[in-house]
Amino acid sequence: MQFKPSDLVTPAGWHLGLSSMDEMVQRIGHGLRNWRRNGGFLLTGAPRADGPNWLADKVLGSTSQAVMVTDADGRIVAVNPAFTAMTGYSAAEVIGLSPSLQRSGRHDPLFYRELWANLHSTGHWQGEIWNRRKSGEVYPCLQTIDAIRDEAQRVSHYVALHSDISALKNAEERLSRLAHHDALTGLPNRLLFANGLALSIERAKRHRQRLAVLFLDLDHFKHVNDSLGHAAGDALLCEVGRRLRQSVRAQDAVARLSGDEFVVVLEEAGEASDVLRMADKIMATISQPVQVPGGTTQISASIGIALYPDDGDDVDQLLRAADAAMYIAKRRGRHQCAIHQPVAQGQGDVPVA
């Protein structure tokens, strides 16, 4: 991790010349060894302006990295201003305490045992950890811990450097959501749906259960956009997504594939008659009036149904079967549902319009 030059300038304007976190730890370690010999001036006292203690003190005070120093027994002996800014704890509140006061409760005991085992064996640990601020807020942190040894190569201190990566985690979460969810309705998109359906198929296979895929297409959706405008069309799509989610159980999945196409996965689907009843319920729910910009509108849906394992045992097969069945429902007059019917070998699925 590279520091910005501004992080490494003393109040007098002198650049400390540190290019990396490792070098900063080395400088702090050097200062700590001198601190032990010279009576202890770390973050307190008035060390000589040209001595190594002064340099370690200035590194700790100037860097934007939160720094905590403990003794060999794990008791805090020093923290820097950046630590106070990050955690809310002043030096007076933590000196003499264990770093465990920051524990978030998100990690099990094994996590900490492995951390200390690695630190004892290599003298170094780096990784992501969830800590807790004085306010009680839990936050993600990139943390580096290094053991500092004295002239006899005994561990005298541990130096921990912390970086709050909340903003990074939030950005990653937003990007992940954009990549896997429909921006308009907030429902899973095709990519996330396909991954979820693959897992559902594996569960159904393992438990020898039936699974249903319902492919839903709104009837005459273009007419809504043409007559009421795209804002009305968008509002209608959002309401359809909301109604679909409310119509199924928590373990079932709803996704928007594209345009006016949605798909529902029913786990533990039971018999075909059970799936047909659920499809009828969904059609009745969707056909209720919807308030949109510009007025009130209604729309119907055509639904095609594919069953696992009857119509396929992978994502592509089941989606193709449900899509073909949906077009059968369209040809029957729309506002219909149809179960996929296998056709004679060589004829392929029913042609789509």
Quick take:
The protein is an alpha+beta fold.
Write the layout of secondary structure elements.
Blueprint: H1 21-38, H2 52-62, E1 66-71, E2 76-79, H3 81-87, H4 91-94, H5 109-122, E3 124-132, E4 138-149, E5 155-164, H6 166-180, H7 190-207, E6 211-218, H8 221-228, H9 230-247, E7 253-258, E8 261-266, H10 272-286, E9 290-292, E10 295-297, E11 301-308, H11 315-331, E12 337-339
Parallel strand pairs: 11-12
Antiparallel strand pairs: 1-2, 1-5, 3-4, 4-5, 6-8, 6-11, 7-8, 9-10
Would you write up a description of this structure?
- There is one protein chain.
- Strand 3 (124-132) and strand 4 form a beta hairpin.
- This protein has helices at 21-38, 52-62, 81-87, 91-94, 109-122, 166-180, 190-207, 221-228, 230-247, 272-286, 315-331, and strands at residues 66-71, 76-79, 124-132, 138-149, 155-164, 211-218, 253-258, 261-266, 290-292, 295-297, 301-308, 337-339.
- It is α+β, with helices and mostly antiparallel strands and 353 residues long.
- The chain is built from eleven helices and twelve strands.
- Helix 1 (21-38) packs across helix 2.
